[in-house]
Amino acid sequence: MDINRLPKTELHLHLDSSLSYEAVKKLDPSISRQDFLDTFVAPPKCNDLNDYLKRVEKQVDLLQTLHSLKLAAEGLLEMLEEDNVIYAEIRFAPLLHIRNGLKPHDIVETVLDTFKNAETDIEINLILCNLRYFSEKQSLQTATLVKDFSDRSVVGLDLAGDEKGFPLDNHIAAYRFADKHDLHKTAHAGEACGPESVRETLEKLHPTRIGHGVRSYEDPNLLELLKEKRIHLEVCPTSNIQTNVYDTYADHTIDKLFSEGLSLSVNTDGRTTSNVSLTQEYKKLHETFGWGEEQFLQCNLNAIDAAFITGEKKTDMIQKIQHGYMGHG
Ligand SMILES: [Zn+2]
């Protein structure tokens, strides 16, 4: 099995945690690869999610011009090509890039245009994120951006950031707004906090997908609820080991969640912060849990089923995936 060649989908991928060395070198030609690794890659074991998020900050610091955002998008596209990704939903928080006066609309437009103008067969859509600490007004502003660009490949709203430190309160209005305008919704939960956080997120924000959600495994009733409501989990194993949700890769619940029949996909979260590609993530699953084509195919079909695209596009993607897995066994 040539894991690299298998067609892949990625639903949970942050632009601001996936800055390539080549992109940074264009911004600062003096930076060595070692400097890059020291500055932007988080250690394999951070204290917790907040410790990890501090490393992301250094990438956000660089992404305060339209030029740097364009380079980041181009660099990420190259990484997706190397992994043989055929469909990706890339997320970022426009309001994190306005420190030097950029306008949120221009930020979204630049990232969109970079992907649209690229010579690639990869289908890419964008998800816009709120951070937990955002005010209700900021949160609504992001939801409004999703609506404004909903006819141009911005396909959904997300909530990311410090799950432990900030409640959902400021974000309920934005998710209601999304409901009202038929916008797709996902939200990070069940990463730094346990199953109660996943439940609360489902009850208050009504997303169809949960970013991570891996600690749902601690509550069998919640697993039943996730199956009943067909909630998809965007699982990012390496990132969870790094943020200390689990001690080692072998301790991760992904294999158990998969065996339980949950709809889940495999994702990198932040390719640079976690120093991982999607191919490497698949290889780890193969080595640790013995996953092969059967599991990878299922995860990719799950991802397409849960993707924020039309039924017609889904059919198209499913064909591409099935074709890619035939004859590789
Ligand atoms: Zn994430």
Automatic annotation (TrEMBL):
Instruction: Tell me if Lipid biosynthesis is a UniProt keyword of this record.
Output: no
> Would you identify the family this protein belongs to, as annotated?
Belongs to the metallo-dependent hydrolases superfamily. Adenosine and AMP deaminases family.
One GO biological process term: adenosine catabolic process
Listed EC numbers: 3.5.4.4
User: What is the protein named?
Assistant: adenosine deaminase
Q: Which GO terms describe its cellular component?
A: cytosol
| Molecular function, one GO term | metal ion binding
What InterPro entries does its record include?
A_deaminase_dom (IPR001365), Ado/ade_deaminase (IPR006330), Metal_Hydrolase (IPR032466)
Q: State the organism named in the record.
A: Halalkalibaculum roseum
Instruction: Return the broad EC class.
Output: hydrolase
The segment(s) forming the Adenosine deaminase domain are: 7-322
Keywords, comma-separated and alphabetical:
Hydrolase, Metal-binding, Zinc
The UniProt entry, under Gene3D superfamilies, shows:
Metal-dependent hydrolases
